[in-house]
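Input record, target 12 of the design panel.
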C-alpha cells in the first residue's frame, strides 16, 4: 500500500501535539488520541481511484487500526455522542485540499460503532468534523484520530 510506513513513530501526544478542539459551540467533556500507526497519508481520499477490492482492503485496515488504538487508549463503550477528528501531519509542504482526507474517517467511525463506543453513527450519536491538516515536519507523515466525547452537549 502506497503511503504506509513500517518504522514505528512517536505517538502524537508524546510529540507535543494537542488534541483538536471540538467544533464551535461544543464543550468537550473527555477526549482520546488514537494514533494510526504505520500510516503516513490518508489511505482514502475524495480523489482516490482504486478498484473496489483495494478500497475494501484499505477500509478494513483502517477499521482494524482504529479498534486496536481505541482499546489501547481505553475509549469507553456506551458514549451517547462523539465527534471524531482526523489529524494529518504530512512530511512535505504542498498544496492540499482540506476535504480530501474525509473518506478516511468513515471506516474509523464504523469501527467505533462496531466495538460499542457509540450505538450508531447517525446524527444523534456522531457529529461530523472536518479533517485537520497540520504543518509538515521533517519525519515521515503521520495520522491520528481525536475522539471527543460531547455527550453533555445538545
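The sequence produced for target 12 reads:
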Amino acid at each position: 500500500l502506497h503511503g504506509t510506513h513500517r518504522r514505528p513513530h512517536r505517538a502524537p501526544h508524546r510529540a507535543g501535539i494537542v488534541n483538536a478542539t471540538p467544533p464551535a459551540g461544543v464543550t468537550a467533556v473527555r477526549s482520546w488520541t488514537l494514533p494510526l500507526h504505520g500510516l503516513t497519508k490518508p489511505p482514502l481520499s475524495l480523489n482516490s481511484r482504486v478498484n473496489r477490492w483495494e478500497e475494501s482492503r484499505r477500509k478494513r485496515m483502517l477499521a482494524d487500526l482504529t479498534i486496536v488504538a481505541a482499546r489501547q487508549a481505553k475509549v469507553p463503550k456506551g458514549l451517547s455522542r462523539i465527534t471524531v477528528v482526523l489529524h494529518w501531519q504530512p512530511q512535505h509542504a504542498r498544496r492540499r485540499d482540506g476535504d480530501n482526507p474525509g473518506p478516511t474517517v468513515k471506516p474509523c467511525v464504523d469501527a467505533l460503532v462496531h466495538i460499542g463506543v457509540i450505538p450508531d453513527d447517525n446524527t444523534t450519536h456522531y457529529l461530523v468534523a472536518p479533517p485537520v491538516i497540520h504543518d509538515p515536519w521533517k519525519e515521515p507523515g503521520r495520522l491520528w484520530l481525536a475522539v471527543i466525547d460531547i455527550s453533555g452537549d445538545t
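The helical segments are 52-72, 105-114.
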